[in-house]
Structures are given as C-alpha cells and as structure tokens.
Amino acid sequence: MLIGNKAVAVVGGGMGGLTLARLLQMKNANVKVYERDANRDVRVQGSTLDLHEGTGLEAMKRAGLLDEFYTHHRPLASKMRIVDETLSIKFDDHGDEKTIAENRPEIDRAPLRDILLNSLKADTVVWDSHFVSMEKQGDGWLLHFKNGTSVYADLVIAADGANSKVRGYLSTENPVYSGVTLIEGNIYNAERNTPKLFELTKGGKVMAFGNEQFIGYGTKGDGSIMFVASSKVPENSVKERGIDFKNKEQVFEWFKQEYAGWSDEWHEFFTNDDVHFIPRPQYYFPMDQTWETQESLTMIGDAAHCMPPFAGEGANVAMQDAFELADCLTGNKFTDIKTAISHFEKEMVRRGAEATRDTLENTERMHSKTALQQMLLFFSI
C-alpha cells in the first residue's frame, strides 16, 4: 500500500473527511482527522441530506455502513410540497407511494455524522483543532492549530469545506460568484416557534417559488427546521446593507423589503424567539481549474469544488471523492503516491465540473421567472 508507512492528516471532519478516514482505516492506514469543532456534541447544522446512487450511497456501501444508514434514514423527509409565494399548494406527493425523491433516501446530518464517527477508532478525530497554517517539513508538512498545538503529517488532505484554509497551499484559483445569495435560518423547537410553517411540511419539505426568488425548508428528526431564502443579487449586496445577522429585527426588515410580494405567513420564520441566521453568498470554482499535483497534499469535497446547494450534489460528490481517493492511495494500480494523486485529481476535477454545471443550471432554473412552472413540470413527469 502506497501510504502504508505514512501519517495521513485529514483536515476537516465533515462527511467527506470522515468517509475518507473510515475507508483508509479499513485498509489499516495511519490517519487522523483534525476538526475545528470543540467536541462531537456540537450541534450539527445544515439541511437534511439525500444520498445518491453511485456517490453518497456507494460510499456508505464501501464503508460497510449501508445497513446502519437505512436504520437512521428518514423516509418522510423525502416527501415534498411545492407552493407559491402566497403558500398556495401546487404540488403534494405525500399521498404518493413512489416519489422521485425517495430514490435518493434522506438522512439528517447529525445521525450521518454519528454513524461515520462511530465507525472510526476512538482516537481518530482530534477535536478543537482549528487549522491556522502549515509549512513544509522534510517530505511532509508541519500543521499548526489555533489551540497552539502542531503535528507532522506525511500526507495532508484538505476536507475543510468551501472556505478551506488548506486549499491555498495547493491552488491559487479564486472562486466565482454564482449570482445567488441565500440567507440560512436555523430554528429549534420549530413546532412551538413556527407552528403554521412546521405543520405545512407534514414532516417533509417545502419548496416555494415566486418573483425569481426561492424559499426552501424541511423538518429534521430533532424537531428543528433549517430554511433558506435565496435570490439573484449582486455579490456584495447583503454586506453593503450592513445587516447584523445576530439581530433578528434587522433581518426581518430585510426580508420584508426584499420579499415584498410574499405572504405575511412567511414572517413566522423571522419573528420567533429561537432563530439564528447566516448569510451565504454562493460560489463555485471554475470548471477548468488546474493545479500542480503534489505528492504530500491534495483536497476533496467543497475545498476542491464548492458549488451552490440547489442540486443536492455537494455532500454526495465529496463522499465519492473520499472513496475514489482511498482507492488510489490503498490499491495496487499506481507505483507512487504522486501518480496516484495526479490520477485522482484529474478525475475529481472532471466529476466536480459535471456536478457544478448541473448545479448552476438548476440554480438558474429555480430563480427564473418561470421557476414554479418548470419545477411543477419536473416533479409531475
């Protein structure tokens, strides 16, 4: 095995990083995951994930975790209602036994993360390890973390997301603004805090289209809701407004102005006592990006090919990156690590470009003047 005597550092304990660690440990590789979260009990935010055949589901199969995935997946989360800006229901598949979405089974991020964490050796994840910098040391790298610790690794794999700090040691390619910015909201105890919008989901998800804008949300097993409100705006428009996103009154005023044509019933998201907001301008990396392969550093997931969330590809592509890289590093196809990484990176960029292209097309479709009609047609086929 090419990395049989190597110390491997995976920076980032998201789905891609944890999947990679699991697959490498199955081949007895020496791998550590350095995660910025203080511990595994930190609340996991983000939307429910739908895993796809050939990517996310294939990764769970190769990791020997598919049965456990289905133990924790949420069939009801795949059910969907499509509404317009007035909350008028235009499509509802809750009475349909066979839905498009159920071909992509859904699971909340927290239980999926737990499945992956529980599959690792007890000391694999080094918590409270917020990456700051690294420098070359011999044939490898000396990594430095915010807590003052440092560690050497022969091979570093960046799995630290769209705002990766490790990526800069490999590529100087800048991300491109997609033209869409979303505001993410997380609401806990949603049945109490947003009763009408919570009830509308019937345990599944809601997608709303109107005025070239989108609102989407779904319930999670812990009783919370994550919603996004997205629209086509200039890159720095939200920042230039000077909104304090810790101040829900300011965010509410922004929503009433920007979504003036939307029903007041949506205000429930912004006026409850337990909502937290995050502004997220959406970026992607150029589809023809290149960099010089290194034998001691590579990257996977959003660090390599971030993209908007409007096609559900991000986590799935990251998990495929994990099993493709694991195969290259632990198989017998290549004679040296650099050749193995070079092969992986070329295929990863190609696959990432395809997913990005599909995602951008869907992003445009969901924010078009005919978004509602197009989505109704898609889900009625």
Automatic annotation (TrEMBL):
Cellular location(s): Cytoplasm
Keyword Transmembrane attached: no
Binding site for NADPH: 43
Pfam family, one: FAD_binding_3
Domain FAD-binding, chain residue ranges per copy: 7-329
Catalytic activity: a tetracycline + NADPH + O2 + H(+) = an 11a-hydroxytetracycline + NADP(+) + H2O
Entry's Gene Ontology molecular function annotations: FAD binding; monooxygenase activity
InterPro entries: FAD-bd, FAD/NAD-bd_sf, TetX_monooxygenase
Enzyme class: oxidoreductase
Binding site for FAD: 50, 109, 302
GO terms classed as biological process: response to antibiotic
UniProt comment concerning the protein's domains: Consists of an N-terminal FAD-binding domain with a Rossman fold and a C-terminal substrate-binding domain.
Family per record: Belongs to the aromatic-ring hydroxylase family. TetX subfamily.
Function of the molecule: An FAD-requiring monooxygenase active on some tetracycline antibiotic derivatives, which leads to their inactivation. Hydroxylates carbon 11a of tetracycline and some analogs.
Name the UniProt record assigns to this protein: Flavin-dependent monooxygenase
Organism: Pedobacter ginsengisoli
